[in-house]
């Protein structure tokens, strides 16, 4: 029986981060994962992360995954793939199926980082081919390069539903609608806004009645629901689709922890282990980190893994207690900053009527996915001035600040509070480099020049679709709600390594449209 100082079950962001942290301090660590590729969800995440530099902000998920794997290799972490852990026992022994063999391993400590599985809702026709989880769609697109469908309806407006909807469009699918039984959008407003300006409608307080089709999905019918989530008569709407994506939350995969005799607790988010702040369970030497201990973003999971890894190094005697707590305090500060703002754990499901700055929350954004034109200028990131200048339509207190560091001229400031709304300094000189536009994880920054020639101005926007339009190409400009507002002409398209696959498209529109035009559509 092979023995390790630390056995980690799950090679996702939390598991790899914990193994690296422990290995840095001298522990011999092994990571087991049932998949054929390590990295967990990271390699499906082609979008840029939120947070700050220490949280891997503005870096795409798959790049973070590659960085973690490289770091794990540098510190001698053994990663065993296609290895399904089928048993975990209080003595910190595991049984693993690898191929046709059942093998036994012993650890002086064990960290469970098995993540979470997708939830599903039932409706008439929910078992038909074409009804899939949003995570499955993401796997098909981003790992296997398979288009999940042609016309897709997304059920769920949390961050997963919003992000995957956008990625479906990038893959060439038409997203006919985003539907949610809740009365307000659950994910970040910036994610919803980039869908809305592409013409995707939102149906809040609606859910699926049935999926139609003989051998596979051919259509879907939705209906409005009342406050008790009962269908409202005569509100049905039918869409012709071949795919229904379901993004209605995740459930922690905590079965191994229960098997090991760890004390568990039932929460609204699922059955999770009863852990202390460092991830230690009720069974000495068994720890948990990441979604298995409570659903959060991957950025939080990585920090949780580092915290558990540091404490495990201390538990094993590789790190003095004082040094372990010093390291954990440093990591906890980073984690705490991610748990602030409108989307902090204690604010989940709440309607925040005002921002931290005292500005009224946009009801239009929450109910329709876009800012109303008459409310944009009340936010500190939106200014009017001569010449080129940034316009930041970031209106929620989200933990994110890459735009502050991106501007070489200091046009943008957020301050020490990472959840503060970005402020544009109208006295600073914008050189039009576009680094702020490319760095924004929410694609909420635009460069505006209100007058480039008589009667016309330009709008520079983030563009992540292929094929790229060419300079001189004519089309139409879409407003924040995705409707046509005027004719537009592409002036230039900039792509650079520093932009990390976000191209900057500059279009010429009438001067009175520069504060409204937010997307270019070729005709």
From TrEMBL:
<feature type="domain" description="4Fe-4S ferredoxin-type">
    <location>
        <begin position="420"/>
        <end position="450"/>
    </location>
</feature>
<dbReference type="InterPro" id="IPR036188">
    <property type="entry name" value="FAD/NAD-bd_sf"/>
</dbReference>
<feature type="domain" description="4Fe-4S ferredoxin-type">
    <location>
        <begin position="388"/>
        <end position="417"/>
    </location>
</feature>
<dbReference type="GO" id="GO:0016491">
    <property type="term" value="F:oxidoreductase activity"/>
</dbReference>
<dbReference type="InterPro" id="IPR051691">
    <property type="entry name" value="Metab_Enz_Cyan_OpOx_G3PDH"/>
</dbReference>
<protein>
    <submittedName>
        <fullName>Thioredoxin reductase</fullName>
    </submittedName>
</protein>
<dbReference type="InterPro" id="IPR023753">
    <property type="entry name" value="FAD/NAD-binding_dom"/>
</dbReference>
<dbReference type="InterPro" id="IPR017896">
    <property type="entry name" value="4Fe4S_Fe-S-bd"/>
</dbReference>
<keyword id="KW-0560">Oxidoreductase</keyword>
<dbReference type="Pfam" id="PF07992">
    <property type="entry name" value="Pyr_redox_2"/>
</dbReference>
């Amino acid at each position: 029986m092979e023995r390790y100082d630390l056995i980690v079950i799950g090679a996702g962001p939390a598991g790899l981060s914990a193994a690296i942290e422990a290995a840095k301090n001298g522990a011999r660590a092994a990571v087991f994962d049932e998949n054929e590729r390590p990295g967990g969800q990271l390699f499906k995440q082609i979008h840029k992360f939120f947070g700050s530099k220490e949280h891997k902000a503005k870096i795409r998920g798959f790049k973070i995954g590659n960085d973690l794997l490289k770091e794990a290799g540098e510190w001698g972490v053994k990663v065993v793939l296609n290895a399904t852990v089928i048993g975990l026992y209080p003595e910190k022994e595991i049984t693993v199926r690898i191929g046709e063999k059942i093998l036994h391993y012993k650890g002086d400590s064990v960290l469970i980082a098995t993540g979470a599985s997708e939830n599903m809702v039932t409706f008439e026709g929910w078992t038909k081919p074409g009804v899939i989880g949003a995570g499955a769609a993401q796997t098909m697109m981003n790992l296997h390069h398979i288009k999940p469908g042609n016309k897709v309806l997304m059920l769920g407006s949390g961050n997963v539903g919003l992000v995957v909807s956008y990625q479906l469009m990038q893959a060439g699918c038409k997203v006919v609608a985003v539907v949610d039984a809740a009365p307000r959008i659950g994910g970040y407003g910036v994610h919803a806004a980039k869908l809305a300006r592409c013409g995707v409608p939102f149906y809040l307080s609606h859910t699926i009645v049935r999926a139609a089709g003989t051998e596979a999905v051919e259509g879907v019918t939705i209906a409005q629901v009342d406050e008790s989530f009962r269908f409202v008569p005569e509100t049905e709407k039918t869409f012709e689709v071949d795919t229904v994506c379901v993004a209605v939350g995740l459930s922690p995969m905590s079965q191994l922890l229960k098997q090991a005799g760890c004390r568990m607790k039932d929460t609204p988010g699922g059955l999770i282990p009863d852990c202390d702040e460092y991830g230690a369970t009720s069974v000495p030497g068994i720890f948990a980190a990441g979604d298995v201990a409570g659903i959060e973003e991957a950025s939080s999971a990585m920090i949780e893994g580092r915290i558990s890894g540091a404490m495990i190094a201390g538990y094993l005697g590789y790190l003095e207690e004082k040094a372990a707590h010093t390291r954990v305090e440093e990591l906890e500060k980073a984690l705490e900053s991610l748990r602030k703002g409108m989307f902090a754990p204690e604010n989940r499901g709440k309607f925040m009527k005002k921002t931290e700055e005292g500005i009224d929350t946009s009801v239009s954004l929450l109910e329709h996915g876009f800012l109303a034109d008459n409310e944009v200028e009340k936010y500190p990131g939106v200014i009017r001035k001569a010449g080129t200048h940034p316009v930041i339509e970031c209106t929620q207190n989200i933990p994110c600040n890459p735009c502050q560091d991106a501007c070489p001229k200091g046009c943008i400031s957020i301050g020490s509070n990472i959840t503060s709304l970005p402020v544009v300094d109208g006295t600073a000189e914008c050189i039009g480099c576009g680094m702020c536009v490319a760095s924004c994880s929410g694609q909420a920054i635009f460069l505006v020049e209100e007058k480039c020639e008589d009667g016309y101005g330009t709008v520079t926007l983030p563009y992540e679709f292929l094929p790229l339009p060419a300079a001189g190409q004519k089309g139409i400009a879409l407003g924040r709600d995705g409707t046509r507002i005027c004719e537009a002409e592409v002036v230039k398209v900039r792509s650079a390594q520093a932009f990390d696959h976000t191209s900057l498209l500059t279009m010429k529109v009438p001067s009175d449209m520069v504060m409204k035009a937010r997307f270019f559509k070729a005709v």
